[in-house]
Amino acid sequence: MTAETDTQTTTVYRVTGMTCGHCEGAVTNEISALAGVSTVKAVAATGEVTVVSAAALADEDVRAAVDEAGYEFAGRV
């Protein structure tokens, strides 16, 4: 899911393998480092990661960040 406003884009991604707060933090830290990202909220219980950014992010960039954190990118919700 992607929603665009005049200034920001909100996208929800599915990430598998997260089981706890540490997992959420690792994914949040890696995605937060991407250019243009303002907020990230990862929820291990649902596997959903909500990202607010200045513009739409390339799925490949998000996948690389999630891989770096040690989890699996499963696409957009």
Topology (elements, then pairings):
Elements: E1 2-4, E2 9-16, H1 21-32, E3 37-43, E4 48-53, H2 59-69, E5 72-76
Antiparallel strand pairs: 1-2, 2-4, 2-5, 3-4
Helix pairs in contact: 1-2
How would you characterize the overall build of this protein?
α1 packs across α2 (59-69). It is built from two helices and five strands; from the N terminus they run ββαββαβ. The chain has 77 residues and is α+β, with helices and mostly antiparallel strands. Strands 1, 2, 3, 4 and 5 form a five-stranded antiparallel sheet that branches. The longest helix is centred in the middle third of the chain and has 12 residues, at 21-32.
In summary, what is this structure?
By secondary structure, the protein is of the alpha+beta class.
| pLDDT averaged residue by residue | 95
Overall, the morphology is globular
**In sequence order, what are the helices and strands, one letter per element?**
EEHEEHE
Cα distance spanning the termini: 5 Å
Helix segment count? 2
Helicity range: 25-40%
Report the β-strand fraction as a percent range. 35-45%
Poorly predicted regions are none
Structural class: alpha+beta
Find the count of extended strands (DSSP E, 2+ residues): 5
Report the biggest beta sheet as strand number plus sense, adding barrel if it closes: 5 strands, antiparallel
Rounded Rg: 11 Å
